[in-house]
Amino acid sequence: MAAPSRTRIQQISDLWTDERLRGIAFQLLVITSLALFFTFIIWNTATNLKHAGLASGYGFLQDAASFDINQRLIDYDSTSSYGRAFLVGGLNTVLVAVLGIAAATAIGFLVGLMRLSSNFLVGRIASLYVELTRNIPLLLQIIFWWVIILTMPRVRDSISVGDVLFLNNRGIRMPQPILEDTFQFVLALIVAGSIGTFFLARWARKRHELTGQTFPVGWSAIGLIFGLPGLSMLFLGLPISLEIPLQGKFNFAGGFNVTPELIALWLALSLYTGAFISEVVRSGILAVDKGQIEAARAVGLPPGLRTRKIILPQALRVIIPPLTNQYLNLTKNSSLAVVIGYQDIVSIGETVLNQSGQALEVISIYMAFYLTLSLLTSVLMNWYNQRTALVRER
Amino acid sequence: MFFRDQSEMLPARAAPITEVGIVGWLRINLFSSYPNSALTLVSLTLLLLVVPPFIDWVLIKAQFSGDTGEACSGIGACWAWVDQRLGQFFYGFYPAEAHWRVNVTAVLLVPAILYVLVDNLPGAKFGRWFSYVYPLLAAYLLVGGFGLEVISSDKFGGFMLNMIVGLTGIVLSLPIGVLLALGRQSRLPVIRLFSIAFIEAVRGVPLITLLFVAIVLLQLFLPPEVSLDQLLRVIIMVTLFASAYMAEVVRGGLQAIPKGQIEGAQAVGLGYWQTMRLIVLPQALRISIPGIVNTFIGLFKDTTLVIIIGLFDLLGHARLLQTNPDWIGDVDHEAYLFSAAVFFLVCFLMSRYSVSLEKQLSKDRH
After folding, report:
1. Per-domain residue ranges for chain B?
2. Quick check: A120 contacting B, CB < 8 Å?
3. Which CATH architecture has domain B154-365?
4. pLDDT tens digits, residue range A102-141?
5. Closest partner residue to B336 among A140, A350, A359, by Cβ?
6. Which of A4, B5, B109, B220 is the most buried (most CB within 10 A)?
7. 3-class DSSP state for residue B19?
8. What is the ipTM of this complex?
9. CB distance from A110 to chain B under 8 Å?
10. Tens digits of per-residue pLDDT, A375-386?
11. Taking CB atoms and an 8 Å limit, are B205 and A332 in contact across chains?
12. Using CA atoms, how far apart are residues B118 and B123, in angstroms rounded to an integer?
């Protein structure tokens, strides 16, 4: 039999209760309101820019910057372009991020292990450090370290560490390594050694899977990457030397200077992030099932192997995702550099913004820079997670 | 017979002295092996090197009275400024005769928060209403109008500013964060994509860039005749920032709800919004409270960033003091130590609360 005919009103109410149709209608509504919202913003921005007589676009990046940057990794002077200034700033951000990540990882693993120590005092000192650094705003810590360095003695009264390192209110004066031309050969050897190690490790893993025989990859890696280049340096007559700074009355001769800004930022970032990393490390190690360690003991693995082959691989699987998150946080937090005048991308962008008035463009460069870093990290992270994901048997 | 008839238990002997009491505790926790004893000695030396001189400097040799930095000797900490500057550190340039308004707002904050977080309080029904009305009441008390003298927001400062920006940000970001979290799990592609894009974009950039948007771009986006108060602009951007993080916290809570709960709700005929409002969210938000508190701690610490755009919060006033001609060179560390202590106290207590809540939650579940 045919379905009972329904009135028109019922048909309309059918449409309303049709879940799919309602979903589409709701999405259309969201799209329309978003479109309206952005039109509103763009229209306002265009009018406001016209009133202010500002041209939009990225052409200004080629104009001469005409300001100085005292901390730089690549050639730059005041006749260079805004674009190049941004590049210098971006590299400075990467510099402090890399330095900070290295130190924060070291601190984090050390303190994480200290907190797990059976020694009461060691555990307490570690928690004291973690609670203190985690609960005080990072910005305050950055300024605090900066002030401490700025209130150090003047150059004339520098605190000397073994007559090699000098601490004063202009930062740290360090010996500068001087490389001779033949050092390039050593560098090439190091690169070749690293590539060799990579293939050696692959071969060793395959052989281990096939035959169960192990190969001392660690020792051969040290030999290939450090040993051979080290030996070659002896043959080349040490193509590297240190230029020790000489203390003068007002300044130093030789060596190179690390600015107070870089030191303060680096210290604060590593200590702050180190505390968070120590928590990550601690919970990662605690997450390893106790039975795993007991089983390793039962089959007679010595403590070193137990840590390397049983605990670490399983703990790292838990540790690495939040660890990269901390690395990303550190990189983003390095933008606080602007407060003490370390010339990172935000600080240089602010100068550019004040000079050129190109607010929209400068801020879009900031966001593009940080979003690229975040995106790259999350792509790497997903790749890692897929590689190490537990294969569950069913 | 070599064994005698043992019909009675032998009286228990006391544990050896090396295993109980202070000696036992020391042996187990500090001197269980040679390396451990060495570690203990190193730690003790470290503590002795740092703690006594610090206490000596901060309290014993410190100077507590005086009108300028000249009163301070330099061998101990200089706390002489506290007397004249404490008000500024907490209230900024808020007029002194109106400080009571801030105080009343702060005192009323306690029940407003308690009635949200704690279940079985007396007068809970009225209390809930009070919590909802509190933000309006606080705004009225702080800004003024309707009989109270109007105080413009550029007078707000000191620790009060940190509290205002942090609390407003977290309260406003909660509903937005919940919507974003639901949106991220929605079956509707447009909603899902928009939520993911917003969350990831905001989480991918530092708060500083958003504050720059607040001061240089927000005005550009709006019609010229609309002019937003600077504090309001900051609060808008801080709210957007916090809501992305809040969304991820709430998502964690949503994912912890068993699917059977949703299926059960559908089986009794509840629609999407009813399911969420009555079944899923009450459970998910309860699990998320520790995460929300942690987000708040993070946001609260981040409120110090407002000094970058020229507002004077607690840290801003510490800087003002440090560079003040009367005090310059005498309070370089003291001003920051004081602010650090205030932040530490608040953040530490909150993180303790969050930890205890987490423990309680995991106990309830098992």
Report:
1. 95-151, 154-365
2. yes
3. Orthogonal Bundle (1.10)
4. 999 999 999 999 998 888 889 999 999 999 999 999 999 9
5. A140
6. B220
7. coil
8. 0.88
9. no
10. 888 888 888 877
11. yes
12. 12
Alpha carbon of A162: minimum distance to chain B alpha carbons (Å): 22
pLDDT, residue A1, reads 44
Q: Return the pLDDT at B237.
A: 93
- CA angle, corner A194, sides to A191 and A198, nearest 5? 140
Question: Tokens 């709800």 correspond to what residue?
Answer: B257
Sorting pLDDT into bands at 50, 70 and 90, what band is A269?
A: very high
Write out residues in chain B with pLDDT < 50, as ranges: none
**Using an 8 Å Cβ cutoff, are B149 and B219 in contact?**
no
**CA atoms of A175 and A252, how far apart (whole Å):** 11
pLDDT band at A390 (very low <50, low <70, confident <90, very high): low
Sign of CA dihedral B149, B154, B155, B159: positive
Collapsed DSSP state (helix, strand, coil) of residue B237: helix
Please tell me which of the candidates A143, A148, A338 has its beta carbon nearest to residue B208: A338
Span B195-238, pLDDT tens digits = 999 999 999 999 999 999 888 888 888 887 888 888 999 999 99
A41 lies within 8 A of chain B by CB: yes
B144-150 LR contacts (CB < 8 Å, sep 24+): B144/B101, B148/B101, B149/B98
Does A118 sit within 8 Å of B36, measured CB to CB?
Answer: yes
Phi, psi values for residue A240, rounded to 5°: -130, 135
Q: Does A21 touch chain B (CB under 8 A)?
A: no
Nearest Cβ partner of A359 from B216, B222, B336? B216
According to the model, what pLDDT value does residue B360 have?
Answer: 84
Strand partners of residue B148:
B145
State the count of interchain CB pairs (< 8 A) between A and B: 150
CA pair distance B51, A222, nearest whole angstrom = 42
Residue B185 DSSP label: T
